[in-house]
Amino acid sequence: MRPRRRLLRRPPWMQNKSVVAIKASSGPLSAAASRLSACSRALPSSRDFHFYNNFPAFKSPVGAAAAKADASLGVIGGASILPTRQQLFPMGRDLDDAHDWLVALNDDLLERFGAFTDEFKALRQKEETFWRRAAPQAGDGFEVDCERAAGGERVQS
Fold first, then answer.
1. Judgement on whether residues 97 and 51 belong to the same structural domain of the protein
2. From what superkingdom does this record's organism come (predicted)?
3. CB within 10 Å: which end of the chain, N or C, has fewer?
4. Nearest to residue 22, comparing CAs of 36, 38, 40?
């Protein structure tokens, strides 16, 4: 009889979760964000992160993910739909600089969205008042409908 080998559970960062993370990031934004949030709970944080970051098996995939995130934010920062006064993403610099850049970008986008919705609201109100004035005022609010009677003459109903 062979002795039983005790199975040790591998730490979460050693398990191959990249495929799961890639699948979790696809689909609608809100669903992808919640799936990625659930996947991120398996990552070590705080002191544990700094401990595991000493090992190449952990450091290399984390570095690759950080580079991919930096590249994605760089593409977003250089998009043509953004205001020209927007600075480029501070790649590889301080985390506080990146956070400040992201907050500023978010504020600019929300301000533009607010301006567009205000403009849309004003145009819609203007259009509604125009159509109210242009529409003939029927006393009871119903339209007159004409039908052909059996003999071929038009009858108002």
1. yes
2. Eukaryota
3. N
4. 36
